[in-house]
Structure formats: C-alpha cells, structure tokens
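[INFO] parsing input record for Outer membrane lipoprotein-sorting protein
[DEBUG] input buffer:
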Amino acid sequence: MKYSKVLLASFLVSFKLFSADLDPNEIVKKADLRRGLGNISHSFNVTITNQDNKREVYQVNFKDVNASLTNQTEPERARGRKLLMKDYDIWLYTPNIKKPLRISLEQKLTGEVANGDIARTNYAEDYEATILATEKKGTDDVYKLELKAKNKKVTYGRIEYLVAKKDFTPIEATFYALSGKALKSAEFSDFKQIQGASRATKVTIRDYLQKDKFSVMVFSDHKPQKFDESLFNKDRLEF
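[DEBUG] output buffer:
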C-alpha cells in the first residue's frame, strides 16, 4: 500500500513538472504555422464552395497579423469586392457603393465562412490558451485546448481546439460566440508541403446545429511577397 502511494506521488509530481514545462500558447503558435505562413508577408488564394456548389474565389494580400487585403475575383458579378483588415477593424468595399463600410470580423462573408476566417486567422495573437485534456482522436494523441478571446473585437469568443501532440498539427476546432453559443466546427485537412513545412490546404466549416450546411475553404498559391503600406489604406480601396 505504501509502495503504491509512493508510485502515485511520483507520477503526480512528474505530471505536474511535464505540465509546467508545456506552454499551451506555444502549442497554439506552432499549430498556427500548420495553417498558414505565420506572420510572414505573403499572398495566397482561397476558393470557397458550399453545400449547393456555390463557388467564390478570393486573392489575399497578407502583410502581417494586423493588416490584410482580400480581393474577390469570382464570380464575375462580385469582382472588385474588397475586405480590408487593419488591427481589429475591417472595411468592405464594393465598386457600386465606393465608400468603404465598416463591418465586423464575425459577420458572415459567404456560407459558413466569417470575415475573420480569411482576414484574421492567427489564434496565438487573439486568444489565451489552456490545456483542458489530452485524449485520442483516431490513432492520434491530441491536446484539447480552450482558447479564450483576449478582447471582444475578435471573430469568436472561445474556441475548443484539437492539436496533434506529435507535430502540433491542427485537427479540428469548435467556435463559440461571445455569448457562449456554439456556432460552428472546422476540420483541417489536405496537408501539403508549402514553403518548407506541412500546412493545411483545406478547411471544412459546418454549422454547429445544421450539419448539412457547410463551406469548404481551399488555400493555394502561397507566395512570400512584400507590400507597400499604401495598399492597406481604406481611402484608396477604389484604386
């Protein structure tokens, strides 16, 4: 009995030391790099389709986590529509209105995709992480993380996030509103070698309650690129 207590005490001490060394925010940073190029200035394309085979294409100029410009290129009738993100502010520009309209990150862009799902995707910047548990997902050992918003301007109030222990690959996420309501889930897949690392090129987002409502985001053509600051000026969006 005494021997069992010693073993249990040793296990608890080892577990506490292991947990103390494991920074959940570092896990999120590493997982962010599996979903994109991190804070590197670059461009990429996003193709979004939904359950009705509606298709939209966007070209994104990403300067850093606080500045991006999204240009819609398809369908033809929506060409010229732009989303400018600066810090937590986002503006919508359309050729027929011409004056930029301030909108929110959580508003839907199309289907189940919110503006922030394209414009601001760096979880490590916007959320404080804690480890809820370690568990199995299929054959993978995963961290189950809770991400709480650092402020009320972000896309989601809270995220439950599964990340593979072996290589910090993001597996899936559940997104919650600031009110606590579950909104939707996401699955990350089709990992490909991009700029020297394995990164997700496909994200399937489903409505939390109506599972038959979904949007698939496919990311392609990641290219490191420098941009002039003037590109991210809301007063120059018509040019």
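[INFO] The chain has four helices and 15 strands.
[INFO] shutting down worker
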